[in-house]
Amino acid sequence: MADFDLLVHAGHQTLPWEALLDDAQYWLHEAVRGYNHLARWKYWDDLTDLAARFIFYYPLLMAYVWMIGAIIYYLRWERRNNDPENLPALPHYPPVSILVPCHNEADNVRETVEFLLKQKYPDFEIIAINDGSKDNTLEILLELADIHPQLRVVNLATNQGKAMGLRTAALLAKNEYLVCIDGDTLLGLEAVTWMVRHFIDDPKVGAITGNPRIRNRSTLLGRVQVGEFSAIVGTIKRAQRTYGRVFTVSGVIAAFRKSALHQVGYWSNDMITEDIDISWKLQLAGWDIRFEPNALCWVLMPETLKGLWKQRVRWAQGGAEVLFRYGRDMLRRTSLAMWPLYLECVVSISWSFLVVALMLYLPIDLFTESRREQLADLSPSWTSMLLSVTCLIQFAVSLSIDSHYERRTGGMSRYYYWMIWYPIVYWMINVGTTVTGFVKAMRKTRGTRAVWVTHDRGLRPKR
Description:
alpha/beta, two-stranded antiparallel ribbon, 14 helices, 10 strands, 53% helix, disordered N terminus, glycosyltransferase, PGA_PgaC/IcaA
């Protein structure tokens, strides 16, 4: 075959295939040479050993920290109150405003509003915000408002972002207690009562985060996320509540005290994840955040790798943004209770960067090892077995606790099998998205408005 048949494109130039192989060989040689130079440094072995131990022991340690915290939460607050349908009797039922920001929700918003209208709560209004939708979301909302006087519609002509939509609706709301859900979320019929009880019980409570459940479970990614929301999200929220501070309320279901929001200036328009940001603002101002597992809602999640990647990068970027913005506030003595949360976030991000560095380092290390050393590295070890067993224990504990909330959908045990894929699929994705999100947060210009983007809503058949 002639050489011109083997041309490939690289950047703006066209290079012969052989030239690319020569370049690859050159850079591999340079990488090995650099590695050999580092390996001669007298502290190199100690440093790599320390990094390897950190990479292994950190997730192992945190798995037990989260499990212990979740078990304490269950025994202290949840064991006798884990039936959503067994509603608590409140001394009074203050009026509530339910806020529903919508952007291109024509496929979902009718069902969302119809679910809200069935709430088992005596006094509530619904405020739906159409935020620059390009489909017929506004027409559907206006049609529903003509039928149901409880529904008010606010129309923003252009895409202003979820934070601005929520802020607008909060300012227009008549009531002190606000429940916020997404336009594609189905709110549990008992959820409002379970959340309002915390505001009545304690005037220091500024927000309550609910318990999202996955609606779409038709693919492997969807089924794994069912277990993830119990084993990871639910367990961590319970544990963080036990230890004092919650990293974030769930943006798909959260309730707020309006006076608390007013004190901290409502949601920030330039933070990509408004839920993480408002959680930190409230807690830094001294407000308490509670987790209410009986406040259920059903949400749509990505079921493609591309959609999942985008979602997790956004979450990771939002977490990094709050670290940058509120790092100086951590120096205040009044922020002492937030220090463990801040430190855990920093360590978690550092762990992800080290895992990426290890993945880049391993091929070079294998290339320079003897055959016996290579086989030893690739063979199963007691450490990997311990991590796997711990992972399965964590899933078993969390699914047992959370199974009370899936009685109506057949329980959680059938998803235990699917969780064996979690360490393979999700850990690698989360490492990549954490590093990518952190870099995007570093490069973002402060003050840039965060607006709506179209998300993967799963592979549900169109109705």
